[in-house]
Amino acid sequence: MSEFKFACSNCGQNILSDTTQVGTSVTCPSCQTPLIVPNIPAGTSTAPPPSAPGLRRADSSSYNPPPPPNVTPVVEKTSGLAIASLVCSLSSFVICIGWLPGIICGHLAKAELRRNPKLKGSGLATAGLVIGYISLAFLILFCALLTPAFIKGFKRGLERGRQNRQPYIQGNN
Question: Which residues span the membrane (predicted)?
Fold first, then answer.
């Protein structure tokens, strides 16, 4: 029984194991990630003694049975709110009010992504927020430019209405 070391795939901690543990499941002593002890590569010498700095012995009491061979891979999920934020913000170029749900969904998506780091979609949420705020800025600029022209036209219409008004004449019938 010879000893060898391998690194945890999650935290990089060096773990000291022996050849009897090859193929079995152990838990990393640092990050508690379940690992399968790998085979010893050919020509690899045995590991230094357990007292060497940076090495920790795998806890033999935390062995788990090996996982079944047909384990399905973990599919990373994308936040639905992040997708909704981007879609709504892009729709603001067609539907003028799309920026509002885009901004709201973007902020909700960012909060959801902070709470659940396994979710993906931070870039989608950021893009939705940026496009939503740009659309809002364009809408404000558009309204600011059109308001004086609208007021001027409204005043001109009132003046023409006053000039064209005819007095009401009652008939003697």
Answer: 81-104, 124-151
